[in-house]
Amino acid sequence: xxxxxxxxxxxxxxxxxxxxxxxxxxxxxxxxxxxxxxxxxxxxxxxxxxxxxxxxxxxxxxxxxxxxxxxxxxxxxxxxxxxxxxxxxxxxxxxxxxxxxxxxxxxxxxxxxxxxxxxxxxxxxxxxxxxxxxxxxxxxxxxxxxxxxxxxxxxxxxxxxxxxxxxxxxxxxxxxxxxxxxxxxxxxxxxxxxxxxxxxxxxxxxxxxxxxxxxxxxxxxxxxxxxxxxxxxxxxxxxxxxxxxxxxxxxxxxxxxxxxxxxxxxxxxxxxxxxxxxxxxxxxxxxxxxxxxxxxxxxxxxxxxxxxxxxxxxxxxxxxxxxxxxxxxxxxxx
Length: 334
Hints:
Distance between the termini: 12 Å
CATH class of the largest domain: Alpha Beta
Low-confidence stretches: none
Strand content: 5-15%
CATH topology of the largest domain: Rossmann fold
Strand order of the largest sheet: 9-8-7-10-11
C-alpha cells in the first residue's frame, strides 16, 4: 500500500515516474483507469483547485469522489493521542480513518497548519494520524508540512515550458501578504524542484527560513539529481538569469516574530518584495512566472506580472489534474 503525503514518499525516481506518466496521458487520455473506484476527500480547510481537480480525475476516469467537510456536516475530528475529548471534537481520527477506509478505495486529506509553529508543522500531526490508521492509500491534498500535488504540478509546468528541468535555474522568492501563511507550498516547490534536478535559488528576508529538515531533504535530492540549492536574502541577486520565478508568501519563524503585532509589522516592512515587471526584468528573457494560486493581486504579486504573457499560473493550476491522475495511478500500482 502506497501513501503519498510528502515528496519523500516518491523520491526523485517516483517524481520522474509521475511526471512522465502525467505528460504522456496529457497527450493521450488513458480512459477509465479507476472504474468503480471511490476517493474519499476529507477537507479541514477550503479548496478550489484541489477539490475540483481531484473530483474531475475520478469522474473522468470512471470512478467517483465523496467530499467530506470537517465541522460542516461531518464531526470535528481529534488527532491528539491520549486526548481527553471533552471539547468540540466529537470523533477521533483513530476511528474515523479506518472507518472511512471500509467505504472507499483511497483517502485524500486537506489539513493546513494549525498555527502551532514550525516544529508542529514538521510533525504534521493530522495527516500522519490518518496515514497511521488508514487501511487504504492516503494522498495529501495539502498538509501542514507539504503540498506534494502542487509541487508536482509546478515541476510538470517547468518541464512543459522549457523541455527539461535538469540544471534549470529557478528562483523561489518570498512575497508579501496581509498575514503569515504556512510553508507547505514553498516547501513542496523546493523539494520537487530539487528532485527534478533544478538549480534552485531561494530568496527570503532574514528570519523567514524554511525548516532545517526540509532544507536537508532538498539538499539530498539535489545531490542525487545533479541539481543545486542556494539561499540568499538578496532577492535581486537570486533573480538574475533565472528561467522561472516562483513567488509565494510564508510566515516568519517563531523566533523572528512571536506576536500578531510583531508579525504584521514585519510583513509590512518587506512590501518591496512583491514581484513586479522590474523584478522579472532581472531574470532571463524567456523567464516564466509561477504561483500556486490563490493570489492576492497587488499585495503578493503585481497585476503586471500575473497578466503578462510570461505568467504560467493558469497552466500550472491546470496541471494539477494531470499530475494527480498519474499520482493516484502510481499509488495503486499503475
